[in-house]
Amino acid sequence: MKIDWKRKLTSRKLWVSIAGFVAGLVVIFGGSQESADKISGAVLSGAAVVGYVLGEGLADGANKEE
């Protein structure tokens, strides 16, 4: 079974899960809620960039094949 990494890395569910996990770890290890919020925001912003770049790459690749 081959894993479709492009699809997985553009999944909003994946990135929200990662952000929630990281925010939880920050709080567990003594960080403030404000720090957890900032880190979650940074993770989700990074996810938006990854999704955009992969999406544009797929679109460009599809246009070259025609």
What does this structure look like?
The protein has 66 residues and is mainly α. The protein has one domain. The chain contains three helices and no strands. The protein is elongated, with a radius of gyration of 16 Å. 6% of the residues are buried.
List keywords for this structure.
mainly alpha, elongated
Q: C-alpha Rg, in Å?
A: 16 Å
Structural class: mainly alpha
The number of distinct structural domains comes to 1
End-to-end separation: 28 Å
| Main pleated-sheet profile | none
Strand-and-helix sequence, N→C? HHH
Shape: elongated
Strand element count? 0
> With helices defined by DSSP (H or I, 4 residues minimum), what is the helix count?
3
Helix content: over 70%
Mean pLDDT, all residues: 81
Furnish the topology, listing elements before pairings.
Blueprint lengths: L4 H5 L2 H17 L4 H33 L1
Quick gist of this model?
This protein has 66 residues and is mostly helical. It has helices at residues 5-9, 12-28, 33-65.
